[in-house]
Amino acid sequence: MRVGAVAPPIEVEIEGERVRVAGVAYEAVLAGVPGTPLYHLLLAGESWTVAAQPQGPGRWTLGVGGERTTVEVIDERAQRIAELTAERPLSPPVGTILAPMHGLVVRVTVVVGQQVAAGAELVVVEAMKMENQVRAPRAGLVSAIHVAVGEPVAKGAALVTLGSAGPPDSGADPAPLDAAAPP
Predict the structure, then answer these.
(1) Which structural domain, as residue segments, surrounds residue 34?
(2) Phi, psi at residue 8, to the nearest 5°?
């Protein structure tokens, strides 16, 4: 199980009425409140009310004591597959553009720190002998590039992260918005 944006993930193992969190064992009893998203949790002698709302397969938003966090439940098999395929189960940061399909990166046409306009080409991914241009969904500043030319990517892999647009006139000559890098 991963909790929020915690890295590395917190490992939780369930053994009957015992729970092992990061290697430490606790007595635990969890009982659902019928007809509600609420659960009563008795953990190490302390009582908690937990609100749990599903957010998709294996993802939950939990509310406990006025705090909310997102958790991702990953069984051992799924964890091993994710490790082997280098896919990250947690959602990428806000502003990250994801690969629309499996393929091979054939061009990266931006650099970190570059200002781009909405619609500017960011990355070209080849799939089934066709080049697919991945374009900026909005104007912004390239804050991270997660791939390199020649790298295979899976559908949903992070390609580029766009931050908010910089100041309108920083005094420097702006980089071209959608200039293609030489092949």
Answers:
(1) 2-80
(2) -70, 170
